[in-house]
Amino acid sequence: MTHYNRRQFLETTGTTLGALALTSSLVGADSTQRFIVDRQSLGSERNIEVIHDLAPVDLLVVNATEDALGGAQYARDKQYSPRLPDAVSRQSARVVYPPEGEDLYKYQWDKQDQQIPATHKITRGEGTRVAVIDSGIGAGHPDLQGTVNADLSKNFTPDSLGAPGPYGGAHGTHVAGSIAASDQNDTGVIGSAPATELVDLRVFSEVNSASFSAWMGDVLAAIVYSAEIGADAANLSLGWTFRFREDGWGKFWGKSMQRTTTYANRQGTVLTHACGNWGGTLQFDKDQRDSSETAGGLTVSATGPIGFMWGDEGLEEPPYAPAYYTNYGTNAVDLAAPGGNADEDAVDTGVNWKYDLVLNTVAIPEYNEAGEYLGATYGYDWYAGTSMAAPQVAGAVSLLKSANPQMNANQLKNTLKRVAEVPEEYDKKYYGSGYLDTYAAVLQ
């Protein structure tokens, strides 16, 4: 398999690597005064402003001074400024969109490989609900109309734009389409579980705003809310969860995440996590692994073909080949799933290298110079990343739950892992239990 240079590939192509590749910037307590607090240890709630009340897990997200928190157990909330791979500035002049009004399924190697149309003969995800914790969903997209529950959708960010809406960028709409794009029209793409109900839980703000960032307290609140509204799956294509110990977040963060993810699991919500795109091992230390692993989430690595629809020569790599950028770790990754791949040597050679990425829906938000939202442009685009792999698993959870309503979260996860297989020609460290097999899981 070709070895790739991630930095060179991105600079050469401007192509999307679809996990939110986050760069941390810790903001001091004096400027933000924002904390995650253990409610049981807090003597008084006077002189604090509650941003999120996470009552089921006895946590608060607050604005306060450290003096007001007294002897409580707490940690400073973290704000990350992401390098969004799908930002308009990295897309506009370089990516060729597929023709409008065309049936785009032929480009969807990911759904073909997962035998999604055959699975739809058994179930299309009826009676299930999936939360998308991301940058927002463009619910007005032709392939997503009627799939998003606007009443349950919620904006967890400090901005006032609400939800649903693609206000934080196109990323969340691509994720949403992978899960639930319609299969009832003759054009566009399809999702894994088009009959499932989506809920837009936005944790990223406006792309063009100085406040464009995600507070981790908002993400924890969105996870708790997902469980409270009975989501069968909650997708987190964020790529941040493996760094909380590595970056020195402290033990309280680990406890807070563990409480939150354990609660979601007990409520029947399967959390699907993108494992990250920096091509590194997650196997080094238990303290540096995502706490959701022990709490029952599914952590997902990315795979993809090389050579899809290039011509008559066939594939150089199959759809289940590890993507060049994916993180790995036998005991850190639970499943591998289609996320897209690329051969940098093929760029600018005339071959259709982008077809090895994942095609799905996008909604590009537009803002004026004052940061006012003007609307969105709806379309389709090719992205790649563990962000694209995680919603494949969320869609599979929805289909499996629809076919087996009696299954709890642990049974859903165990079934997906049990039917998955590790390809003989590749290293197990990329796969955990194996490569996702949606059709086989639903047949179970």
List the helices and strands and how they pair.
Elements: H1 6-13, E1 16-17, E2 21-24, H2 29-32, E3 34-38, E4 49-54, E5 59-63, H3 66-69, E6 74-76, E7 79-83, H4 88-91, H5 109-113, H6 116-120, E8 129-134, E9 154-155, H7 171-180, E10 197-202, E11 214-215, H8 216-228, E12 233-236, H9 251-266, E13 270-274, H10 291-295, E14 298-303, E15 335-338, E16 358-367, E17 373-384, H11 386-403, H12 409-419, H13 438-443
Parallel strand pairs: 1-17, 8-10, 8-12, 9-10, 12-13, 13-14, 14-15
Antiparallel strand pairs: 2-7, 3-5, 3-6, 4-5, 7-11, 16-17
Helix pairs in contact: 7-11, 8-9
Structure description:
The structure is a single chain. The chain has 444 residues and is α/β, with parallel strands linked by helices. Helix content is 25%, strand content 20%. The chain has 13 helices and 17 strands. The strands form four sheets. Strands 9-10-8-12-13-14-15 form a seven-stranded parallel beta sheet, with helices on both faces. Strands 4-5-3-6 form a four-stranded antiparallel beta sheet, with helices on one face. A three-stranded mixed beta sheet has the order 1-17-16. Helix 7 packs parallel to helix 11 (386-403) and helix 8 (216-228) packs parallel to helix 9 (251-266). The protein is globular, with a radius of gyration of 20 Å. Residues 1-15, 21-32, 83-95 and 287-294 have low confidence and may be disordered.
